[in-house]
Design brief:
Helix content is about 50%, strand content about 0%. The chain has about 180 residues and is an all-alpha fold. α7 crosses α8. It is elongated, with a radius of gyration of 40 Å.
């Protein structure tokens, strides 16, 4: 119902409005600066053949332009077609450690670790870096060695420090 009402208002006096727009003065180029206008007139007076050259059509250029033929085609995207007969599934592995929870059990692909495993391996490396080397962690969790080295270098597990009650005032006052 609303479309009908809006259409009536949109089409009201349409011909007169169109005629008014068409009969308006057309926009024209911005006026030249007086010095530019005088320079152009000066050049035309010195070389009257320039005006004729500018206004004349060059047949040689027109024939060359007519010979130009542009044939464009969109590039074909490189899409790999997957074979539907062989289902592709990544190699999966079991979770490491004793934090098995059957409710949130998840299949983790090789080359990836869960958050719990990341915290566990960071903590193990922090407590005994001699036994939990980057090579051993990469082998245990099926990770790339460079990724493990980056993980050990740039990520740190949280430290929880509990101050005894009697030293609480000293810790606050030292600020």
């Amino acid at each position: 119902m609303g479309a009908r009402v809006s259409r009536v208002f949109r089409n009201f006096n349409l011909e007169n409005r169109a005629e008014r727009e068409i009969s308006k003065a057309k926009p024209f180029a911005a006026p030249m600066h007086p010095t530019t206008k005088s320079l152009i007139l000066e050049e035309i007076n010195r070389h009257p053949e320039l005006e004729e050259i500018v206004k004349r059509k060059d047949d040689k250029l027109l024939t060359l332009l007519k010979e130009v033929y542009v044939d464009s085609k969109d590039p074909v995207p490189h899409v790999r077609v997957k074979d539907a007969s062989i289902p592709h599934s990544p190699e999966l592995r079991l979770l490491k450690g004793n934090h098995f929870n059957l409710m949130t059990s998840q299949n983790i692909p090789k080359g990836k670790i869960s958050v719990v495993e990341a915290l566990t391996l960071l903590n193990n490396h922090k407590r005994s870096p001699e036994t939990w080397t980057a090579e051993k962690i990469a082998q245990e969790y099926y990770l790339e060695l460079k990724d493990v080295k980056s993980l050990l270098m740039f990520f740190v597990a949280f430290d929880v420090k509990i101050f005894p009650a009697n030293n609480k005032k000293k810790a606050i006052s030292s600020k």
